[in-house]
Write the structure tokens for this entry.
Amino acid sequence: MSDVPSSSTQVVDYRRRQRLARIAQRLIIFGGSILLAVYVIAPVTWLVSSSVQTEAEIVSVPPHWIPEEPTLRNFKAIFSATEEETVTYETRSGQDPAAGGFIPSTASSLLPAMANSLTVATLVVILNLLVAVPAAYSLAKIRTWGRNATVYFILITRVIPDIALVVPFFLVIRKLGMLDTIGSLVLTYLAVTVPFSVFILLQYFEGLPDELDKAARVDGCSRFQALIRVFLPLSLPSLVAVVLFTFLTSWNEFLLALMFTQTEASQTLPILLAAFTSDFTISFSFINAAGVLAIIPPVIVAIIFERYIVSGLTAGAVKG
Amino acid sequence: MAADKDNGDQEMSGLLKSNFGRRDFLRTSAAAGAVALAAPARIGFAQGGPTINMQTWSAAVDTVQSHVNAFTEATGIPVNYGNAPWAQYRESMVTKFVGGAPLDMMWVSDAWLPEWAEAGWISPVDEFDFLMAYNAEAEDFCTNSMTYNGRQYGLTYYTDFMAFLYDESKIKEAGFDAPPATWEEVVEQSLVMKEKGISDYPMMLAMAQESWLIEFMSALVFSHGGRFVDDDGMAVMQEKDKGAVEALQWVVDAVNTHGIVSPACVETGELSGLKAFASGNHAFAMVAKYRLRMLNDPEQSQIAGNVKQAMMPKGPNGDHNTVGWMRFHGMASQAAQDKARAESTAKLIEWFGGKANGAYTFQKFLFLDIGAGFGVKPLFDDPEIRAAYDAYGNVDMIQAQQALAMKKDVVTPWFGEWNETNGSAWQSAILGNTDAATAVMKSAEFWDELKQDY
């Protein structure tokens, strides 16, 4: 008898270790995935859960992930907004914010603010595409003097932080008589988003072979027709990236909207949500209910373009 | 998956490959541009004309709007009312001032007065005698807080003060009949509570670096009979008989010698401290008076019904003084430059900060609607207000304490810069890294340096 294990035993041990290593690896990946999923999903879950909780339940320790006394009070307050009428001493909401069931008096402005946000975001997306697509195509495929300088100039405009642009923008908007209008937001958001949209599309168009352009021209296409019939169909992922970028930027933008709007006629959702935090108190449950409504449009946009999102977001990231 | 993607590509490609010519493109672009620029038809600002532009932060919007509507109905003067979130209000107003937005009347915090007055954005209102007449019925600290370089800039919108609150059940459990009247008695009662296991840290102090810190420090200094600076704006905090050193020494001893205040107080913000007090962890707390309503609400507090207010304890050389703060209705300089516009704006200021139809309607509604404190003394006699206060507090106690409130003496153009250094100096002493006298001396030296620079 020898103490040295036979070669067949060694092979079995090796296979067992390999199998255990594979299982361990899968467990680590699985555990990591679970952690990542919880990290991503937990805040949204809490947002939804707390939107149907009372103020007292929200601050309970430990937190109630599943509401014990669910209530739709906040959503009712938002959707029960009636036709706008002159507010009088008798019809004012007059709620004490120190009381548990406080609902801000501006609750009824939430849906108009959502409509404003949607209008602004949609217009900015459409105008972005109309401006950025021809600009990027011409810069990518038409070799002209000053082309590189133009590209760098467009990029440089994005180096300037938004905060530095606020006062100049404000002066222009005031001179145009557009203060407190959604037009002021469309105009300024275009100035912010178009350079980046051009940059995304430019990188993508440059990655497409020049021969396609030449072949289209040989077949009788004008420049414009080559863009519409040849390049755009091939550029869907980058177009989706532009749509997502401009929509989400416009939907979430706060600083410029804060400066240019001041009434229900033009205030967008981020401004109204911020206004729910007063100098006296904050209604967590109401803000969370408003937050639930605020994430619906971006989620819908993400679902519509889901299949293009990953390729779209990496469009232009690697230049071939 | 790949098939799905291909189908999707084909669908979208099909859309894009439809017959869409250059002229169509130009037509669509023009139409989209027209829509974008036509949308601004709803212009909110009335640029020019008799309309008064009023800007506030987003508090009690309905109450304000109802009062605006009543003003227009009573005077025939239209008002364009806009509001912005409280947290970003100052920044948005600065942009509007710099950008020349049409503004006539706006809400102003006492903390911004030096900055806005020095910049020439707001104008004094003391030339309107009918506005100055209201000072006779206003709390002195409110009038003082609206005054800068001898000129008064508005009428009160709301006010409050730092209150000393206690949990009555814990006081009784410790064997005391009455709350402490001096800071020495706070130590004495707290030590008994610690010994009996009623509370580990009976006194709640929130000394974290945040906007509330100067209010807590001021209340401590004023109740020790002290000042940070004298009437000429020169630092006196470093003088041992001026209260600031004594106040800081009391906090240092409370944390390090007696153990009645948690060392974590330097990381405790006002809201966290409030929640801790509401959960029953402490017997005494220094918080804003308006928190009393929440602390006695069973839905939000575990010690509801037991929270009472006492006069701010006094130091050996002090009195029951505390700090008060306020916001006011101010007039924009651009309004003051036009006589007719200024008169209309002054009427609107009176309608909100003074009497409307013979009564302090707005300040009363603001208290009843959102619990905001008022700065005019006659409202303490209003039966509706007394009933509302008595539901959760003692209106006479509130009135007595408010009468002893003092304005912060450090509100200057360099306040923000100094405040940070001062807060750090106090925290450093509390943590035992330096002694109280040295910490306050450092703060005083920095004050003098800044005063000279400005």
About this structure: The domain at 52-160+325-396 of chain B is CATH 3.40.190.10 (D-Maltodextrin-Binding Protein; domain 2). The radius of gyration of chain B is 27 Å.
